[in-house]
């Protein structure tokens, strides 16, 4: 029974290691190239960064294929000074591209970052362009895919605060519109009242004049008598 559990643990360890360490390794000339995301799993809508490790390949006497030789080694003796020599071009769906500069890690020589906020899920292609010292580089690599953020949001959407702001702004706009309509209605009512007053003035004025004339005539008759 003990041997059974030991065998089972040996089978599971590589699987978990593959999940936790999702970096891709390739080779360019005499150099080992390794890329992978800073934070995994990678989610759409979240700022992340592609980690780039550049180091020399140690001679593999029993492996003739450079990529397999590089893949059998670990990162060590990183190559510094590549910040201005290399760039990473992200490609999505073979149609949309963006080229980003590299940022050097201050503590680990030969380690660089390219920061990005992927807005959609799926597979991205990362093209390494430029040169490593005197070696030209034009390498296409495929980091682990980006997952849809909504799959792990619970219980509310991460954009709840943003939605609340949008809703508050919508309510404010509605209140402003309602206030503007009330002012317009008040202005219309004021104009209507003014029109009615003007109409009454036109009617009352002749009557008043006639009344004054009648009063003057009556006064004159009284004086004659």
Describe this structure as you would to a colleague.
The protein is an alpha+beta fold. It folds into two domains: 20-156, Sandwich (Immunoglobulin-like), CATH 2.60.40; 159-225. Helices cover 40% and strands 26% of the residues. It has three helices and nine strands; from the N terminus they run αβββαββββββα. The strands form two sheets. A five-stranded antiparallel β-sheet has the order 1-2-3-7-6. Strands 5-4-8-9 form a four-stranded antiparallel β-sheet, with no helix packed on it. It is rod-shaped. It starts with a helix and ends with a helix.
What distinguishing features does this structure have?
2 domains, Immunoglobulin-like, 225 residues, 40% helix, disordered N terminus, alpha+beta, 5-stranded antiparallel sheet, single chain
How would you concisely characterize the structure shown here?
The chain contains 3 helices and 9 strands, in the order αβββαββββββα.
């Amino acid at each position: 029974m003990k041997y059974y559990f030991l065998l089972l643990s040996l089978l599971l360890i590589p699987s978990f290691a593959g999940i936790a360490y999702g970096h891709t390794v390739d080779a360019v000339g005499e150099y080992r190239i390794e890329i992978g995301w800073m934070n995994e799993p990678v989610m759409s809508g979240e700022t992340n960064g592609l980690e780039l490790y550049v180091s020399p390949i140690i001679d593999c006497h029993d492996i003739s294929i450079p990529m397999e030789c590089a893949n059998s080694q670990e990162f060590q003796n990183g190559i510094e000074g590549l910040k201005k020599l290399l760039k990473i071009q992200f490609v999505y769906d073979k149609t949309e591209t963006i080229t980003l500069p590299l940022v050097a890690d201050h503590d680990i020589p030969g380690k660089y970052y390219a920061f990005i906020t992927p807005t959609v899920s799926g597979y991205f292609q990362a093209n390494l362009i430029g040169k490593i010292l005197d070696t030209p580089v034009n390498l296409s690599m495929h980091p682990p895919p980006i997952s849809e953020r909504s799959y792990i949001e619970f219980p509310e959407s991460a954009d709840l605060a943003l939605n609340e702001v949008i809703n508050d702004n919508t309510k404010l706009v509605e209140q402003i519109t309602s206030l503007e309509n009330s002012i317009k209605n008040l202005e219309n009512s004021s104009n209507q009242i003014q029109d009615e007053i003007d109409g009454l003035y036109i009617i009352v004025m002749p009557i008043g004049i006639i009344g004054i004339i009648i009063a003057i005539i009556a006064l004159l008759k009284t004086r004659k008598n």
